[in-house]
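Z., the sequence and structure:
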Amino acid sequence: MDWVIVCAVLIIIAGITILTVGNQRSTQSKPKSSPSTRSGSLPPPKSDVFTSAQLLSFNGINNQPVYIAVQNPFDTSEITVFDMTSGIDFYGPGSPYHVFAGRHASHGLAMSSTDRNDVEGDLNKLSASELDTLTQWYLKFESKYPKVGLLRENESGSSAGTTSHPQSVDSVQR
């Protein structure tokens, strides 16, 4: 009978040890939240409205975030600005796609071109295949990168407004 009690105690101790060790491992594997290592202010709220001129400064140079504007294929009145900073190796200075940083890059993305002359252009002249490519890029960005605002342009395609700071979407009539 004594051996039964000893075995029961050992099983209970082993179970407690397994639970304790398992709990410690799961706690250690959780990422610890840490403040941003980038200098400067936090990214603007998701409701900001940018002009093309304002967007240019968000190109990853001097520790700025990297933003790229892309035409929303599901709402052509909307040009979404994505924060690509987490993909700095692809979109930051010296990287393969830095040509898109701080720009409305829909034309270049649709054409699958990193030629600076192709980055911005008339989207009405794109083929069906190029528009499909643009949709794929938009969906990829939407699934991977946070939206930080919208780009507003007037009918001629130039940036609307001359303010030095983005405006709230609520202050812009759609």
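Helices lie at 2-29, 52-55, 88-91, 106-111, 116-119, 128-144. Confidence is low (pLDDT under 50) at residues 26-45, 155-174.

Let me know what you think.
H.
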